[in-house]
Amino acid sequence: MTVSNTKKALVVTSSILGNQGQSRALAEHFKASAAKRGNLQITERDLVAMDLPHLTGDELASWQVAPESRSPAQRELVARSDALIEELLVHDVLVLAVPLYNLGIPSQLKAWFDRILRAGKTFRYTAAGPQGLVEGKRAVILAARGGQYAGTEMDSQTPHLKSMLGLIGISEVELVFAEGLAMGGEHREQALSEARQAIDAVIDRL
Question: How far apart are CA 62 and CA 77, in angstroms?
Fold first, then answer.
């Protein structure tokens, strides 16, 4: 195996529980399994440690200003989004380790998406609707939930994530669920074991 034949995976975590979070445990298993197989080069982006702030009107406005006309403050704001987009673009696979908070995604992950879903950079508006500009990427969602929501109307998280990824052109998305983690020890261990097996199978397909 050579590095040139190795795909690059960006693993994005957003659990406020740090190493105690179950979504983080899924991410760690993904990394360990990939290391054993040797087919993925991993970069990890911990959004909680990064302490990415919520998007503001000033930051949004800075994107609309021509580069040569930006103030130093605007250039700094634009650089934050540009760096996150560039990090995404240099990887082949995006892995989102996502806990379920009040039926939605963590605000830290939303703040990340707010910087990478950028008109003119990662998608554009056309007469036929939005067109994604991020090509040739795959995504894996590692979803950890205390209850069981997959396939029900209460799972508003998964469609939201797939829609945001689709907006920028990432339509090939694999889902791994670890559900019912708050429903007792036996159920929890079985769910995590099945999720780990699913992760291994996903990595074999990448």
Answer: 7
Distance, CA of 129 to CA of 136 (rounded, Å): 20
Cα distance between residue 63 and residue 149, in whole Å = 37
What tokens were used for 172?
């090939």
CATH number for position 153: 3.40.50.360
- pLDDT of 3 over the 60 cut: no
Tokens of 159: 């469609």
Place of tokens 């097996």: 197
Phi, psi angle pair for 56, to nearest 5°: -115, 165
What is the arithmetic mean of pLDDT over 45-54?
96
- Give yes or no for a contact between 157 and 122, defined as CB atoms under 8 angstroms apart: no
pLDDT of residue 134: 98
Number of folded domains that form the chain: 1
d(CA 182, CA 149): 13
Question: Is 4 marked as binding a ligand?
Answer: no
How far is Cα 194 from Cα 26, in angstroms, rounded to an integer? 11
Q: Which two tokens stand for residue 31?
A: 């990394």
Place of tokens 């998406």: 113
Site of tokens 């007469």: 127
Write the DSSP symbol of residue 163.
H
- Determine contact, residues 39/206, Cβ cutoff 8 Å: yes
The token duo for 76 is 């700094």
Separation of alpha carbons 168 and 162, rounded Å: 10
Task: Provide the domain limits for residue 190.
Answer: 3-205
Please give the model's pTM, rounded to 2 decimal places.
Answer: 0.94
Strands 138-144 and 173-178 come out as parallel
